[in-house]
Amino acid sequence: MTTTTELSETTLLRFATAGSVDDGKSTLVGRLLHDSKSVLADQLEAVERASANRGQEGPDLALLTDGLRAEREQGITIDVAYRYFATPRRRFILADTPGHVQYTRNMVTGASTAELTVILVDARNGVVEQTRRHAAIAALLRVPHVVLAVNKMDLVGYREPVFATIAEEFTAYAIELGIPEVTAIPISALAGDNVVEPSATMDWYGGPTVLEHLETVPVSHDLAHCHARLPVQYVIRPQTAEHPDYRGYAGQIAAGSFRVGERVTVLPSGRTTTISGIDLLGKPVDVAWTTQSVTVLLEDDIDVSRGDLLVPSKDAPPATQDIEATVCHVADQPLTVGHRVLLKHGTRTVKAIVKDIPSRLTLDDLSLHPHPEQLVANDIGRVKIRTAEPLPVDSYADSRRTGSFILIDPADGTTLTAGMVGDSFATATPAAADDDDTSDDDGWDF
To answer: Helix, strand, or coil here: 174?
Structure first.
């Protein structure tokens, strides 16, 4: 059994599964949990009972992740299922995402924080449109590592040429997308081949199992080399007898590190000051870094509120009202030119207008359909947005946290689109000429 001391010395890997419907994602996750001894006895008993009630001889490991009633009835994944498990070598947070095209937006949610994506392919079907869509999303989200798991090898006689053909086709497509690394592994999630234990029937494969690769893939959580950014979430002003003049600015550091004595700039106001103190878990520290939630104290009494961004004065991003981004549209209602939206970047939300949709990506051949006028659910495309106020945005290639945003319907708060600032694919979309601004008479003309 893994001890607390051992866990504290291991690293954490966030990964997501993706692929077309019925490729076996939930079964793979269930097999990982089962064979790595990460399933509690009562969980396994519940799965065995549910499987028996459905007339199955053995436990359906997919039920370890498919928890919704509709998922169990239809045998598909609908919502993102998060699971936490650990081995002596590493801790894991996994997101089992749906395969149906209408749930592609859920895959965006699951992969947005992932450092690795496992894309499954049915060995009988090979690379299909949904496989390409999920590969494109992995590239769009800048997921550092991609694993191609060619599943159901038992149904094709464990033949090496079948695996080699699929791996070659997918890798060529991934290179076009700019994915930096692809590791192909032949597996049978149902039988357990090359998931946790090496396969006895595929001696022609000499690479790692899925779990071995997950345990050993390099993961860097040291974002100290990134541009330091702290979105302010809350202003702490207790005004008590013990702390009559305390004014702190709380938030989670999105990238980089901050230290006491450092000159910082508050954006979008542009005012500069010096960090006089940093509180972490109620105790003062000299330095804090990415993902830590801290309270920063400033030397000068300047106006700072929720939605502002603290950055090093020597490394402040330019603020702009014109944003061009690659987006994945996730709402049922289409996104159109002239659409009035709210744009949420970090902790700041501002009014915005979609000024242009220069192109939509065709996943079959990565060609660009120019000026489609709208994006519908699950479309990937380029947009130009004009905001009511300047925003200090980074390129998504430089920072996944401060280079991303979402578009929100101002009428009902529905999330419309997930956006990534700048060029995301290696095959970048050429910039189109700026259109002339059109006037508007209801306060949304920026």
So the answer is: helix
Residue type, 134: H
pLDDT of 293 strictly over 50: yes
Closest listed residue to residue 24, CA positions, set 129, 96, 115: 96
Residue 8's pLDDT is: 39
Number of CB atoms found within 10 A of residue 284's CB: 11
Residue closest to 179 by CA, chosen among 119, 136, 128, 130: 136
**pLDDT at residue 51 in the model:** 55
d(CA 145, CA 196): 19
In angstroms, the first-to-last Cα distance of the chain is 60
236 three-state secondary structure: strand
One DSSP character per residue, 349-407 reads EEEEEEEEEEEEEETTTTEEEE--SEE-TT-EEEEEEEEEEEE-PPPTTT-TTTTEEEE
Identify the pLDDT of residue 438: 40
Dist. CA 350–CA 352, nearest whole Å: 6
Q: Half-sphere exposure of residue 428, counting CA atoms within 13 Å on the CB side?
A: 11
CA–CA gap between residue 266 and residue 38 (Å, rounded):
46
Copy the structure tokens of residue 53. Answer: 């009630």
Contact by Cβ (8 Å): 77, 94: no
Mean pLDDT value across residues 161-187: 93
Q: How confident is the model at residue 60 (pLDDT cuts 50, 70, 90)?
A: low
Helix axis angle for 104-111 and 129-140, nearest 10°, is 30
Residue 30's closest CA among 60, 56, 67, 53? 60
Cα torsion angle, 280, 286, 289, 295, sign: positive
| Token reading at 219 | 């993961």
Closest CA to 307 of 196, 206, 231: 231
**Strand (E) or helix (H) holding 117:** strand 116-122
Could you give phi then psi for residue 163, rounded to 5 degrees? -60, -45
Contacts with 230 (C-beta within 8 Å, 6 or more apart), sequence order: 249, 251, 252, 253, 254, 258, 294, 296, 309, 310, 311
CA distance 383 to 406: 12
pTM confidence score: 0.76
Express as a percent the part of the chain with pLDDT over 70: 80
Distance of CA 184 to the CA centre of its chain: 21
Burial of 314 (0-12, 13-18, 19+ CB in 10 A): exposed
What's residue 339's pLDDT?
95
Q: Which of 390, 424, 441 is nearest to 140 (CA)?
A: 424
